[in-house]
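note to self — DONT lose this again. spent like an hour looking for the file last time. sequence + predicted structure for the chain T wanted, 539 res
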Amino acid sequence: MKKIIECVPNISEGRDERIINACADAVRAVPGVTLLDVDPGKSTNRTVFTFVGDADSVVEGAFQFAKKAYELIDMTKHSGEHPRMGAVDVVPFVPVANVTTEECVECAKRFGERVGKELNVPIYLYEEASNNPDRKMLKQIRQGEYEGIKDKIYKPEWKPDYGPQEFIPKSGATVTGARFFLIAYNVNILGTKEQAHKIALNVREQGRSADQPGRLKAVKGIGWYVTEYNMAQVSMNLDNYKITPPHIAFEECASDARKMNLAVAGSELIGLIPLEAMLMAADYYIKKENLFLVDEAQKIRLVIERMGLSSISPFIPEKRIIEYMIKEEGAEPLASLTVRNFVELVGARTSAPGGGSVSALIASMGAALGAMVGWMTYGNKKFEHLDAVMRKLIGPLHFKMKELIPLIDADTNAFNDYMTAMKMPKKTEEEQRVRHSKMQEGLKKAITVPFSVMTIADSCWEYMLKMAKDGNISSKSDLEVGAKSLETGIWGAYKNVLINLNNIEDVEYKNDMISKGEAIVKNAEKHCKKVCSILSGRN
C-alpha cells in the first residue's frame, strides 16, 4: 500500500508573493511530491505550505524548499506577529497513510542532518524526534525567538542537533521533527462567545485548571464569536485524531450545547483531513444508528451530513480529504481498462499482464459474486429474516473484492521490477553483485503479490459457506461460479508463486512459501466443494 507522509513547513514570509511562489515552485519541481496548499498570512508575515509524498520524495522536497527559502529570506529584515526563530521556522513531518511516527522521525533527522551539513543552518529537533525533555516542545525551543537565539545558541544546553553552533543572522535557526496529524476543527454554536468558551473549557484536555481537567485527551480549545458567520464556535486543535477523533469532539460539544439549551449548527474543518478520520466517523454513526453501508462514498456522505461539515462552505471530499487530493489518474491502468481492452491486452504478444494479473482478477470476481448474492438476498421481502445475517456477510466480501482489485496491477508492476533488475549493468564484479541482489529482491516481490492474492481469497471461504447456506437460492449458479473463481484465482496465483520460486536462492524462504501455498490450495479445493455441495442440496 502507498505510503504517504505530509510535510508542513512554515517560512517567515507572508507578504512577498515572489518569494512565496519561488518556494512553492521548488516543491513542485521535486518528483513524487504533491503540493496541496499554500496559506500566506500578511499580518503574521508567515506562510504555511503543505505537501505530501513518500519518505524519500518528501525529504528531498523539504530540502529544496528550505534551500530556496534560506536563499531569498533575510531574517534581519523580518517582522511579524507570529513567533519565529528562522527563515524556515519549523518543518514537521506527519504520518498520513501506512506510515509510522518512527519513519517520520527518520525523515526529520535526514532533513536536519542534510540542511546542517550542506546549507550550514542550525537545526533543532522537536516533538517525537527529540529525546531532550527540555527541548521537546516547539515553544520551549522557540523561546526568545529570532532575537534571542543569537545569545542562546552558544550555551552548551542549546547546541543545535545539526549544523553549526553559531548565530547565522540571515537564516536564523530551524526546528524540525515529527508529530501526529493535527486537525483544526470548529463546532458551530448558536450562542455567545462566553457560552462557546464554557464548552471549550469542558472538553479540552487542560480544562479550567490542573484540578479541573477537561474530558477529551489531545484536544486544545477556546470559544470565540465569528461576526462573519453570526455565531459562536468551539475552536479546537485535535492533536491526535486516533485519541480524540473529530466526530467525538463534535458529539461532546453537541451534548454540552443541548444541556445549555443551545443549538448546534454543524461544524467546520480547517484545512485537510486524512481519510481514516472520516471513515472512523462513518463507522461510529453506522454503529450508533444501526445502519448498513459498505460503499466508501456513501460513508463519507453520511459523515458530512451528521457532522454538518458543509454548514459554512461546501465540503468537497476531493478537495478536503488528503488521499482523494493526491489520487493519481491512471494509478491502476490495468484495473481501469474495459473488459474488452483487458482481454485483448492479455492476448497480445507481451509477457505482462499474464497469469498473475488474471488470477487476481478472477479471485476478485469470486468475492464480488459472493457479495452480489448477499445483495440479492438483503432487503428482499422474502428473505427479510436474513437481513442481519447478510449484513455480516456482504461487508467482508465487498472489502475482499476491493483488496484484490489493486493486485491486478501490482502483479504486473512486480514483474516489471524484476525485468528492470535484469537490465542493470554487469560489467564489473560490484555491478554483478548489485544486479544479482536486485534480481533476488525483484523475484521475492513478484512472489509476494500472488501470495497476497492467495491469502485474501482464502479468507473469503467462511463467508462463502454461510452465503451458500442462507443466500438467495435464485442466485445459486452465481455463487457456484464465485466459489470456482476463488478456487481458480488461488490455484493460478500459486502457479505464479512456484514459477518465480525456481530462481530463488534462499532455501528456507522457498520451502516456507511452498508449504504455505500448498496448504491454501488444498483448503480452496476443500471449501469450493463444500460450497457447491451445500448449494446442490438446496432447492
